[in-house]
Amino acid sequence: MSSTDTPTDAEEKVAADHARNDLVARLTAHLGDGFIDSHLVAGDDLWVRVSRDSWVEAASFAKTSLGFAYFSFLSGIDWMPSPFGRDMDAQVDLQLDGSDEESSGDDDTDSSAIESGVAGGDTRFQVFARLNDVVNGLGITFKVDIPDHDLSVPSWVGVYPGASWHERECWEMYGIDFIDHPGLRHLYLPGEFEGNPLRKDYPLLARRMKPWPGIVDVEQMPDDDTDADDSAGGEA
Amino acid sequence: MIDATILLGELAYWQQTSLRVVGGLAAVLLIAGTLVYLHLFKLVSFMQSRLGPMEAGPFGSLQLLAEVGKFLQKEDLVPRKADRFVFLAAPFVVLVSTFLLVVVVPWGPDAWFVDSDIGIYLAMAVSSVSVIGILMAGWGSASKYSLLGGLRATGQLIAYELPLILAVIGVVIQAGTMNMQLIVTAQADGAIFGWDGIGNPYILTQGVGFLLFMIAMQAELTQTPFDMPIAESELVTGYMTEYSGMRFLLFFIGEFATAGVFSAIAAVLFLGGWYVPGIDSDDNILNVIGPLVMLTKVVGLTFLVFWFRFTFPRFREDQLQKLAWKVLIPVALANIVATGILKVAF
Amino acid sequence: MTAISDREKLSYIAAQAADARLNLELETEGMTLNLGPQHPATHGTLRIIAKLDGEQVISAEPVMGYMHRGYEKLAEVRTYPQVTALVNRIDWVGSFANEVPFILAAEKLMEVEAPPRAQWIRTALFEMSRVANISLFLGDMALQLGATTPAFFAFRDREHVLNQIEAVTGGRFHPNFDRIGGLKDDLPAGWITETKRAMRKMRQFCDEMEQLVLGNEIFAARSRGIGVIPADIGLSYGLSGANIRSSGVDWDTRRDNPCGLVHSELDWKVWTHPDGDSFARFWVRLQEVRESTKMIDQLLDGLPSGPIMAKVPRIIKVPAGEAYVETENPLGVMGYYVISKGDLVPYRVKIRSASFSNISIAPWLLKGVYVPDIITILASLYFILGDIDR
Fold first, then answer.
1. Which contacts (CB < 8 Å, 24+ apart) does range A25-31 have?
2. What's the pLDDT at A7?
3. Pairwise CA distance, residues A102 & A84, whole Å
4. pTM value?
5. Inter-chain contact C322–A117, Cβ cutoff 8 Å?
6. Among A45, A44, A74, A39, which residue's Cα sits nearest to residue A59?
7. What is the spatial distance between Cα C70 and Cα C75, in angstroms, rounded to a whole number?
8. Which residue in A207, B296, B332, C181 is a FRET match for C152, CA 20 to 30 A apart?
């Protein structure tokens, strides 16, 4: 029964915290310089950023020594803000947001604008993957920086065969090469497809052709000022 | 068909022939139609908690005509790479085997197409013709699914022909004849331990044979659980994949008519055929009642066929072969031996 | 549970090996069979290219993308409340369950918690979509093995659950009912009694399936020892849900990482099966439906009163951060990795869908089996195409 497995919140938090702290310590000890950064939310989640060279080592250590036998997913992140800025969104949203439009048409990587998430990051692209320990119910998110000049990272297929499709997806969506992947070919997209759709500089054509009408969920309240933008949203 | 038999002596040959053709068509198409409506449309629908066709005619009874009309209107597609002649001829070969089968079935004391002394032997022989038709369809379609289906069907039909024939041999030994008509009268004149109230339907003495015959028949008809050759969920109806319109309809009629005819043969062999207890087996009235009695028995037996079809999952090909060669055939052989010994003993 | 007959398994393996040897000696020519993208066994548009040697599969490669809709990209230009309408369509037979982990992830980032009543109703609807989803599987697997009637029974009885979902949400397939901070509406009057009746019917349906399908010797012969997944292989391929539990791995995120749903307050059991074959997967799923109906009964009995919506701003801006929430969806573990930059729209949403990982084991699993077993294995892995292609 579930009640036996779930101690009270406070207890669990502390226990999990110990467990996660221990994980961080063991990873640091094992990977040495390969361990770059980590982010721990007590009783909740753990992020670990490793260097590209110890990417595979981190996985096999987690699998064999830390008990993270379960491969959950692997994917990429593009930290460069969209060069199309917020003009992909409706004007209504921009006004609500208050922020002004980003400079559109700026295609190049503007590294000054790059702002990475938890556990930090120095590059535009990151690959992240999640592993689970099914016995203790823990999870780790591993992140690795992918330098712009060499978009490649060693493949995890040797450690987790299930990573194969995830890496194929990441490869076609972000253009990140996975070294030693047995069959890096298109998964979703047709073979002759050009471009990497999930990159931020890949325009969502539907939005370029026809701007989104805005937050249509916003119901008009009786005391609201009626303005032109709102009515435009309503009609869509 | 009844008239035909009574008047046979007084009619010219061509007249007899045309009457036989009409009778044969009626026997095949009426049975197929009845089975499709009663079993496929209604019985199965009730089993699956639906109503089945309800709109066309009272209780959807005209749905059949609508379906036939639909199939006739459809384009008769032939795949570009098909072996054209083989592809086009295959449904007819299958249907011909059904017509050849119906020939030997007696429907009343005088209502028969051919009163052959080797009736059941002929029936077992011509039932194999459909295998050729199926293999033709499988090969001619130029489709991998069809080819797999056709090959599976061939393997299966050959495997199950044996238990089918061996199951019949028990009856033949007991009746002492291969003439279908005489098998009926042998049952009608028989007696159960001296009591001849209902004759002696061979299901009582050949119960094992009946069981084997029904199982092998299910397989010969490629109905679930033996429908590996047409398996919709993997081979997309196997050898029928590429057929459409009229030719698909022919396969369809062939399937149901063959079910009916095989049931008719089973009824003759095991259930006493057209004989009605209490009526003298020479009575002319049986020429009228007989076909109806037969039809009832056919519907009853096909009910079993379709009941199993819509209840069971299907066997895998190797399991199916294992069942035929390791279970059915030894049992059938034992049945023959037992029947032979008892025949000599009594 | 029912111990698998080792003899049967071994004889099957021996037969496979013998076939392979024979084929090698005879040097038969291979054949490539293309199953799909339109094939009755693929629930949509999955395509499997199988290289065959006779009826034996040498290698099988699933090809997908025929229904790729790019939800990860689309989610980047939709506001958080709008995303639920998209993700509804990932696993379209248990669609409410798709919304839950996304909403939970957003709530986690916003540090909002739904009021208890909303959480309980959310859990009830979550479990109901499991019942609706897996009951379809129970009929469908039998259909794939050639038994047509169970599929009709499944569609008939699934209707009871769908009607109840519709009564609350207004949508049978795409409820779009979950909101950040709670639910759109409260329950309609009389719903609880009706739902309990529906759950009784579902339990009857489970009994019926147990007798009609599970107890059938042919079904057992077709599924026992077919597609055996060892636990460690299953884990490294990321299999989840009933697929991994039927390999003896006792892992259920509902119990092990309860996150925003109230499963921990219920009395229930995680079912596992040691065999790891197709039969075990069917068996585990059947037990799960039964368990879910019991859970729903408990949820309805213990439903707390109170509001169904926490206080959230009308225009939802999610604070910057990253959160990953996974829940035990009908098909397996479904997770959303949401990265926010404090905007109206998520910066990046990674959708970890269950079927994608579940089906990724197919090339490994299909090697060496016979053509009919492809169908058994695919059916027993149970994927929804929208959940693969996203």
1. A26/A65, A26/A66, A27/A58, A27/A61, A27/A62, A27/A66, A30/A57, A30/A61, A30/A65, A31/A57, A31/A58, A31/A61
2. 47
3. 7
4. 0.81
5. yes
6. A74
7. 9
8. B296
Q: Is residue C216 helix, strand or coil?
A: coil
Coil, strand or helix: which one is A184?
coil
CB contact under 8 A, C147 and B148: no
Beta strands in chain B (DSSP E): none
Check CB contact of C16 with chain B, cutoff 8 Å: no
- The answer to whether residue C43 is domain-embedded is no
Domain containing C116: what range?
A: 71-357
**Considering the domain boundaries, does residue C375 fall inside one?**
no
Q: B233 contacts in C (CB within 8 Å)?
A: 40-41, 143-146, 375
Q: Which residues of A touch C268 (CB under 8 A)?
A: 1-2
Nearest-by-CA chain B residue for C145: B313
Give Cα B43 to chain centroid, integer Å.
19
Whose CA is closest to B90, among B150, B31, B149, B136?
B136
| pLDDT for res C19 | 63
The DSSP code for C330 is T
If one counts the domains in chain C, the total is 1
Contact B228 C372 (CB under 8 A): yes
How far C86 CA sits from the closest chain A CA (Å)? 14
Are the C-beta atoms of residues C111 and C72 closer than 8 Å to each other? no
A110: pLDDT strictly greater than 60: no
**Mean pLDDT throughout B256-261?**
87
Report the pLDDT value the prediction gives residue C5, as an integer from 0 to 100. Answer: 58
Domain map of chain B by residue range?
Answer: 66-345
CATH number of the structural domain spanning residue C244: 1.10.645.10
Query: Nearest CA to C222 among C34, C8, C6?
Result: C8
The residue assigned the tokens 């361990």 is A35
Residue C215 belongs to some domain of the structure: yes
C349's enclosing H/E stretch is strand C348-352
Residue of A217, A220, A223, A224 to mutate, interface with C, max C Cβ within 10 Å: A217
The C-alpha atoms of residue A222 and residue A86 are separated, in whole angstroms, by 29
Reported ipTM: 0.82
| Residue ranges in chain C whose pLDDT is less than 70 | 1-29, 40-44
Q: Residue C358: which of C333, C328, C325, C390 has the closest Cα?
A: C333
Amino acid at B261: V
Q: What is the dihedral of CA B182, B185, B187, B193, to 10 degrees?
A: -120
